[in-house]
Amino acid sequence: MRIDNLDGPLGAEVSGIDLSAAVPQADIDAIASAWRERLVLVFHGQTLSDPQLIAFSRNFGALDPPGPNPYGEPFNKQHPELNVISNVIENGKPIGNLGDGEAVWHADMTYVDVPPKAAMLHALEVPPPEAGGNTHFANMFAAYAALSPQLKQAIAGKIAVHDASTNSAGMLRKGYKPVSDVRETVGAHHPLVRTDPASGRKALFLGRRPNAYVLGMSVPESEALLDALWAHATQPRFAMCHRWQVGDVLMWNNLSVLHRRDPFDPKSRRVMHRSQIKGDERVA
Ligand code: SIN
C-alpha cells in the first residue's frame, strides 16, 4: 500500500490496496493516520459489495446509520445502515437521496449531538466527466488558522444551532416543518470552533449555512457573522475538487471538512453507496 498526498491543502491517494479483502491492521493504522492528517482519502478502482463496504468501514468504528430522508424510509432496504446517493428513479421512486442538483457546502448530520466522524462514499455509476457531479472538500483546520484575529475573537465561545429540517439539496426531511425564523431552528447546538481531541488543533465547525443561528445574537448579527465565516471557509485556497470515476471510494473526516457537490446533467446516472462511522464524543 502507498499513500501519496495530493497537491493542495488536503487529500491523499491510497493505492496498492483491495478494500474488498481483509485489510491488515498495519494498513488500517496507516489509513487512519492519513485520514487524521490529510482529511480526505481517495481509493481508486475498488469493486465493493455492500457487505464489503460495511466490513471495511467497521475497521474505523461502529456504523452510524443515515439520518431521516425526505421519503421517510431507508433507500437501502437490505442494508439500512448504508445510504444511497443517487438521482436515479426506478418505478417512479428515487432509489437514493440528493437528486441531481447542487448539494450545498455542509458536513454530514451535524444536526445531531454526536455527528459521525467519518464517511465513505463508493462510486458505482458516475456521469461522464463533462456532465458535472464533482465533489469539493474544504479543510476547516486551515480555514480556522487563516481567520483574522477579529473573527477569531468574534467566534470564541460562541454556539450555533445546526438545522435538522432540510438536507444539503434543500429538500425537507420527512417529519420536519420549514424554518421561518432561525431562532426557532431545530437541531443540535455545537461550538463554532472545535478543538480536535487528539491533536489539540482548532477547526471551524459550521455544519451547514441554511437556517443556522448563533445563540445569543440578534438575527442580523448572527447572519452577518455566519456570512463572513462561510465566505471565508469555502475559499478555493482551502479546498480540493474530486472528479469521480467508477470504483472510487472517498473517506473523509466529517468533523474537519465541509463538502459540496456540483449539480450534474439529469440525463446521466449517478449511484453511490455511503457508510458513516459514529463519532466518539460531543463536539467541543
Ligand atoms: C454528500 O453530500 O454526502 C454527497 C456527496 C456527493 O454526492 O458527491
Could you walk me through the main structural features you see in this protein, from its secondary elements to its overall organization?
18% of the residues lie in helices and 26% in strands. The chain has helices spanning 25-38, 50-57, 140-145, 149-155, 219-233, and strands spanning 2-5, 12-15, 40-43, 83-86, 89-90, 93-94, 97-98, 103-106, 118-125, 135-139, 159-161, 189-191, 193-195, 202-204, 213-214, 239-242, 249-253, 257-261, 271-277. The strands form five sheets. The chain has an eight-stranded mixed sheet, covered by helices on one side. Strands 8-18-10-16 form a four-stranded antiparallel sheet. Strands 12-11-15 form a three-stranded antiparallel sheet. The longest helix is centred in the C-terminal third of the chain and has 15 residues, at 219-233. It is globular and about 50 Å long. The mean pLDDT is 97. The chain binds succinic acid. Residues 85, 98, 103, 108, 135, 168, 259, 261 line the site of succinic acid. Succinic acid (SIN) is lined by residues 85, 98, 103, 108, 135, 168, 259, 261.
